[in-house]
Hints:
The complex is a heterodimer.
Chain A: H1 2-25, H2 34-45, H3 48-65, H4 72-88, H5 96-121, H6 126-152, H7 154-157, E1 163-164, E2 170-171
Antiparallel strand pairs in A: 1-2
Helix pairs in contact in A: 1-2, 1-3, 2-3, 2-4, 3-4, 4-5, 5-6
Chain B: H1 2-7, H2 9-30, H3 37-68, H4 71-114, E1 116-126, E2 134-137, E3 150-152, E4 157-164, E5 169-173, E6 180-185, E7 191-197, E8 200-207, E9 217-220, E10 232-240, E11 247-254, E12 263-271
Antiparallel strand pairs in B: 1-2, 1-12, 2-5, 3-4, 3-12, 4-5, 6-7, 6-9, 7-8, 8-11, 9-10, 10-11
Amino acid sequence: MRHCLVYIAIAIVFLLLQGTFLPLMLTPQWRPNIILILVLILGVREKPLPAMMTVLLIGALQDSLGGTTVGLHISVCLAVFILTRLTAERLNVESPALLVLMLIGANLTYGLLVAFIMTTFAEMGTILYLLVTALPQQTLSTLFVFFVLMVLLPGWLLSGTTQTDKNGRLYRGEQS
Amino acid sequence: MRDLLSRYRFSLLAMVVLLASLILYSYNIRQKSTTTFFERAVLSVVAPFQLGIDSTATAVMAAWNDYLWLIETRRRNVQLETENRELRARLELLDEISLQNQRLRKLLAFVDDLDRAALPALVIGEDVTPWSRTIVINKGTRSGLRQGLAVVASEGVVGRVIKTSAHSSRVLLITDPSSAVATLVQRTRSRGVSRGRGDRLTVEYVEQDADIQKGDLLVTSGMGGIFPKGLPLGRVVAVQQDHFDLFQRIEAAPSADFSRLEEVLVILGDDR
């Protein structure tokens, strides 16, 4: 519970950064999706149920501060979280390189899911143009933020990454 | 008598010399305009030494003050730097106030032209996602805002209020993909719908035979009930006509510069 509150607090700080500070320096295409890093970390190192609830809350926060309709980011964050969870169970997520690859994948998945949901449910074809032009830059800037966080907070991002077995129990490294 | 003189010789001599000096002093008071030989001699001998010592002392003091004893200089420097910073800050503040004044004057002129009640608001945030185009303003329901109100800047239409809280609101910009504004081409009065495309607008449903040229001004048509008629939306930057299509493909640049938006006006109510 305490972990979840910490994640929520960090998410609020990240969202405030994305909504106030970053727009002063970066064009929309180059703004990183810092929240995605949180979703990824939640997916690879926290217990499934509390992590999922936290992701839902983070998605709701993002919906409150961005976009036009509540539910879009909740759905997308949750989908990315589930995919991360499924992938993390089969991979050695303690490897920083793998985390980077997962982040790239998560970023692309996030964008594609937003495009899919918006074109399917809201019939907004023009979102595709925006996404296609913004996704590569956004992936790069998100990676940059991830590297900065890796340098500043290596303990938080790398060590202590855990996985869960089929019963939802957490284990570290190889499962015996 | 001789014994007495020898006994008080020093005292008597001292008194005589003192008396002599007083007499000399008294004499010189009367003769003050003249310089005695002694005085001239002393002055002549001492002058070079005085000059030398004075120069050396000045040089040493200057070196001490300029290179070694810099506490006072440092204190003064810190004081001047602080003063300089404060003055610069005040100057920048004055510049900022002056610019804000200019912008607000333009907004006020725009309100006068609009002839509707309008509420000024500050832009305090932007959308947290890169694919949506919304801004957050510092006025909410407490100031009388509600969903659907039009938001404009001095250059033209900004968007409409989509979410409100007590003290802030979110505004959907006309460049957001989910925004659609009923549009008129000012020169030809051709109708269309302007949709957001990130940084640009696309104007849809403009008939093939409509005369549209680059540089044409797009204004709101007043249909839909959100935006008053005749507000500038943008200028046409590209026109594409394909004979197999029903409508022209038109691209426009919005009138308002959304990257530099600081103050906006929320249009309240109907015509005065």
